């Protein structure tokens, strides 16, 4: 709602109870609160109000609260309203002690996001009954106008479903949990159920991307990677950029990719949303939430190999991925099986790792900050990186030279480059909990050769929500490495 617009305030009925309902311009929020507590509930209501006030005061003292709930009331930010519609004709509502049947109700239903525990979201609905048709139309128009101003929300999506990812439930998850929410939000879709590996990637080279506000993949990290390769590859092809040149500046692609988790690890979804829940992801997509991600390009002898946004693993983790692919029939359990096998084999690799530390990056791989949407560390790092690049272009600072590179020689059990924390349900904090989603750098994690018991401790620490800094592990924030 534009600031300066008059507030809309009426007495409407919610679940048979008179409520003061308002659309508040300053807070861009829909608020409602019962006027009179139900009979018989006065005492508990008074206690509840008292408790709410105490909580309210405690929250005010402990800092800002996103949803400032008035005592006994509800506040829904307009940005979290999914849709508003005429209530179904023929609904029954309770007024006082009489049940009334309204054939043509003057009522509207607001569907909105309810925030649950642990980053989970669900869709809730509330119906407001109006005294007459004019009032009902006034509310529908005011809310509809506000929703029309949410311009970042997608209207038309291209959806790729991998029917073989994870527990092979991608199609079912989309049809049962996601499609109904999209239809509620008025999002139209074109759905392609993939028929073979790289179907989505190849298709993205051909489709008319201008038709869509976003590409959606229903699957796991492999499916996301497929769509990422298709989209980045397509944009480079259209702009005649050669991805084989490691020094080339890639053309940015402004179309967004959404993920509905239906894979085995769902690390990209978990690290960006905080949970791998299809409904939560669908609601974030509907509201138009977005998160910029660092993409790392991997080259070998001047040939482009792959893009990655999560973990690039050599040694233990690389071996697990390779081995687990052979046992895909085991489903998500293939990672446990491959991990156990690799742990027993205790392979190590001798070599030299060269890297260029990201001097301009704010934050450190060992600090306690956690990257979230709107992260200050990412914003500051990118600003410093851009400043550094501008200074280089003007000749104010020298270009990177040989001595900017560092090398570490040794015997390694694992060499990992974490572009993000790489959290997943098995490792809720991830491989590198302080890694950032969009700071232009990645964390290099070197696990030196160590005893089997120390390596087991290292693996267990990943699963028990703690980071670890044993003497056999190096952690460096870098920009390039060999
Ligand atoms: N129709 C298909 N048949 C066979 N493979 C497919 C098909 N569609 C996609 N794929 C491939 O399946 C691979 C794995 O898919 P996905 O990532 O969805 O599941 P997952 O491997 O179980 O999950 P995660 O990557 O999170 O561990 C992807 O690399 C993708 O290229």
Automatic annotation (TrEMBL):
SMART domains: DAGKc. InterPro entries: ATP-NAD_kinase_N, CERK_C, CERK_PH, Diacylglycerol_kinase_cat_dom, Lipid_Phosphate_FormReg, NAD/diacylglycerol_kinase_sf. Pfam families: CERK_C (PF19280), DAGK_cat (PF00781), PH_CERK (PF25382). GO terms for biological process: ceramide metabolic process. One of its GO terms (molecular function) is ceramide kinase activity. GO terms for cellular component: membrane. Residues 152-302 form the DAGKc domain. This is Ceramide kinase. The gene is CERK.
């Amino acid at each position: 709602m534009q600031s300066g617009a008059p507030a809309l305030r009426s007495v409407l009925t919610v679940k048979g109870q008179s409520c003061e309902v308002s659309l508040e311009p300053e807070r861009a929020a829909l608020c409602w609160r019962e006027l009179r507590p139900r009979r018989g509930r006065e005492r508990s209501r008074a206690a509840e109000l008292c408790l709410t006030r105490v909580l309210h005061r405690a929250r005010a003292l402990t800092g800002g609260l996103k949803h400032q709930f008035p005592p006994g009331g509800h506040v829904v930010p307009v940005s979290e309203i999914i849709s508003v519609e005429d209530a179904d004709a023929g609904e029954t509502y309770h007024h006082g002690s009489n049940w009334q049947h309204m054939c043509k109700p003057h009522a509207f239903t607001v569907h909105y996001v309810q925030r649950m525990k642990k980053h989970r979201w669900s869709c809730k609905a509330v119906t407001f009954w109006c005294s007459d048709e004019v009032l009902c139309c006034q509310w529908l128009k005011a809310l509809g106008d506000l929703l029309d101003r949410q311009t970042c929300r997608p209207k038309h999506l291209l959806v790729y479903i991998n029917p073989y990812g994870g527990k092979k439930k991608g199609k079912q998850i989309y049809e049962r949990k996601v499609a109904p929410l999209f239809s509620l939000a008025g999002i139209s879709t074109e759905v392609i159920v993939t028929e073979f590996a790289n179907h989505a990637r190849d298709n993205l080279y051909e489709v008319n991307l201008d038709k869509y506000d976003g590409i959606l993949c229903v699957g796991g990290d492999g499916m996301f990677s497929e769509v990422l390769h298709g989209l980045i590859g397509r944009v480079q092809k259209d702009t005649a950029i050669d991805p084989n040149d490691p020094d080339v500046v890639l053309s940015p692609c402004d179309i967004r990719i959404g993920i509905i988790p239906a894979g085995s690890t769902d690390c990209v979804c978990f690290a960006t949303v905080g949970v791998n829940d299809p409904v939560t992801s669908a609601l974030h997509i509907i509201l138009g939430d977005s998160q910029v991600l660092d993409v790392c390009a991997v080259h070998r002898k001047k040939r482009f190999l792959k893009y990655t946004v999560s973990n690039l693993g050599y040694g233990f983790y690389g071996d697990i991925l390779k081995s687990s692919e052979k046992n895909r029939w085991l489903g998500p359990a293939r990672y446990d099986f491959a991990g156990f096998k690799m742990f027993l084999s205790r392979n190590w690799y001798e070599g030299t790792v060269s890297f260029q530390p990201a001097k301009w990056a704010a934050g450190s791989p060992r600090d306690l900050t956690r990257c979230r949407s709107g992260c200050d560390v990412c914003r500051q790092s990118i600003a410093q990186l851009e400043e550094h690049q501008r200074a280089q272009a003007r000749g104010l600072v020298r270009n990177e030279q040989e001595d900017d590179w560092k090398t570490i020689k040794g015997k390694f059990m694992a060499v990992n480059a974490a572009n993000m924390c790489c959290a997943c349900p098995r490792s809720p904090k991830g491989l590198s909990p302080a890694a950032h989603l969009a700071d232009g750098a990645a964390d290099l994690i070197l696990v030196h050769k160590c005893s089997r018991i120390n390596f087991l401790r290292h693996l267990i620490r990943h699963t028990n929500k703690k980071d670890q800094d044993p003497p056999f592990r190096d952690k460096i924030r870098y920009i390039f490495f060999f």
